[in-house]
Design brief:
Required for disulfide bond formation in some periplasmic proteins. Acts by oxidizing the DsbA protein. GO terms for molecular function: electron transfer activity; protein-disulfide reductase activity. The protein is mostly helical. It has a single domain, classed as DsbB-like (Bromodomain-like), CATH 1.20.1550. It contains 6 helices and 2 strands; from the N terminus they run αααααββα. Strands 1-2 form a two-stranded antiparallel ribbon. Helix 1 packs antiparallel against helix 2 and helix 1 packs antiparallel against helix 6. It starts with 8 loop residues before the first helix and ends with a helix.
């Protein structure tokens, strides 16, 4: 069965890139059309999706040698797993009891303009009380939970390219 999934890794990297474009498009849709403002962890997840997608795009355009496929696969999987870690933290914050949720911080734009970069990065990666709100669900899972699933799928797709490339 898995033999039927063996394509040129370049095609799979391109599909991974298109998946990342889709995820970023959905985030833009929810923000711009539905009016859901992203919290700091949501923005961090978007950055991780963009970085993973950029890695996949470069791999697809580069058409690397077998050694290059392995390197791109490991970099793509690492970026996706970093995003998965942020998503997992976000899901964890959403499941905290109300008295354990971190305090809400000023809006991210204010923090960017008035605080040092280290404080801004810490805020973006640690999350705030805003991150505990569940504004959207599908099949009982929140947006960060679906993003966690997507990151795990992207990491799996990336690692599978090492196996996929051995047959060529």
């Amino acid at each position: 069965m898995l033999e039927s999934l063996k394509f040129n890794p370049r095609i799979w990297f391109l599909l991974g890139f298109l998946g990342c474009v889709f995820l970023l498009s959905m985030g833009a849709y929810f923000q711009l059309v539905d009016g859901l403002e992203p919290c700091p962890l949501c923005i961090s997840q978007r950055i991780a999706i963009a970085a993973t997608g950029l890695c996949f795009l470069v791999a697809a355009l580069h058409n690397p040698s077998p050694k290059g496929v392995k390197i791109y696969s490991l970099v793509g999987a690492t970026l996706a797993l970093c995003g998965a870690a942020v998503s997992a933290r976000h899901v964890w914050i959403q499941h905290l009891p109300p008295d354990k949720v971190p305090e809400c911080e000023p809006p991210l734009e204010y923090v960017f303009n008035n605080f040092p970069l280290t404080k801004t990065l810490k805020l973006m990666l640690n999350g705030t009380g805003d991150c505990a709100e569940v504004n959207w669900q599908l099949l009982g899972l929140s947006m960060p939970a679906w993003t966690l699933v997507a990151f795990l799928l992207l990491a799996t797709l990336s690692v599978l390219q090492i196996w996929n490339n051995k047959a060529e």
